[in-house]
Amino acid sequence: xxxxxxxxxxxxxxxxxxxxxxxMAQQVNGCVQSELTNPARVVYTCEGGLVLEAEAAAAFDIGxxxxxxxxxxxxxxxGVLVEVEPGSGPFQILxxxxxxxxxxxxxxxxxxxxxxxxxxxxxxxGVSRPNxxxxxxxxxxxxxxxxxxxxxxxxxxxxxxxxRLLARFAR
Length: 171
Hints:
Layout: H1 3-18, E1 26-28, E2 31-36, E3 41-46, E4 50-55, E5 59-62, E6 65-66, E7 69-70, E8 72-84, E9 91-94, E10 99-102, E11 105-112, E12 115-122, E13 125-128, E14 136-138, E15 142-147, E16 155-156, H2 159-167
Domain FecR protein: 49-125
Keywords: Signal
Signal peptide: 1-25
């Protein structure tokens, strides 16, 4: 190796060690993005008490919003756990099959193939079709599976199903 490269290598290594990683703290539509492991997921911490925790492989896009806080996000594959501070304003997850809207709660949305599932951990979530029809309200422990052509039926989810879903977010 040329002497110049050998001289620069320690300086470059030192820079990498102390410089913050771009993957560790990026801005995405007013939210700070960070990564977690075990299981792998991406966390978006937004103004006004909004936290979105998406599976690493999630097909997920955060919309822009007012006052530095998004008011919606689109999810077309995998899952996201949503925490909205009560009184912080509306927020909704848009999927190909459903809209999950909330004002203050913790809930999970999962999209797989042509199915959207929504489960509420805390608070209340309204779920409807993308055109706003067939709206249902979910309370803690309740979920709904949304598919084209099937009615929206609110059910209390078995603990095993809840545990499997929340384990994807290290809960």
